[in-house]
Amino acid sequence: MIFTLIRVELLKVKRSLALLMMLACPLMVAILCFGVQLKTNKTGVIRWDMYWAGNTAIWGYFMFPLYLALITGLLNGNEHKNATWRLMLTLPIQSRQLFLAKFALAVIFMFGANLALILMTSLAIFVFGLLGFSTLQAFEFDFLRFIFFACVSALPILVFQHWISWRVQNIVAPLAAGVIATMGIVQIGQSEKWVYYPWSYVMTALNATSIDVRHQAIILASTVAVCLLGILTYWIGRRGVEFE
Question: What is the pLDDT of residues 214-230, one digit of tens each?
Fold first, then answer.
């Protein structure tokens, strides 16, 4: 049943704003980093490891958490907007199944955005090559590790944003929560208390200098996400079809 619901949800997002945002948000990061590098580079030589680090830092620190708030708000907001929650729950499905199917859809969009960032950054490097820059060693970036670390470390954020956008009809509330939480990374993410703040896990997993700290962020994110998803899924089932 869950897989059937996921297929139905995928059909519903064709040509949707959510699909556009999955491409637009990574594109903004790629264009920004491309423009900054092109403007500030005076030597004609690009440190590609630093270029990739800059792209992933901007993505993990700022754009990615906001994207998760936006995408969950859009995916669930369509149901609020069209008043289709109760219609869907009159079908022989449980609210928990629908909640998990929507979450799985959000995971797909999360993975897609990280893949899009890699593709668009690679395209920017190709353009640098056309402009005469050397692209030697430009693609010695661990793509699989980046996607895995980015997606797993962001799971607690995705669970929370999915829940709040499920519960609240107004898309402004989930977006406001995402913006406020992202701003907290500035203070908490750079302190020893980052372990208590799930929004700092992405930045830590992607950019921490210590491998052990990166792995700690992944373990924390996985644990928090599984526990939070279990609690909220159980709570959704008890609450039934009530929405605010």
Answer: 999 999 999 999 999 99
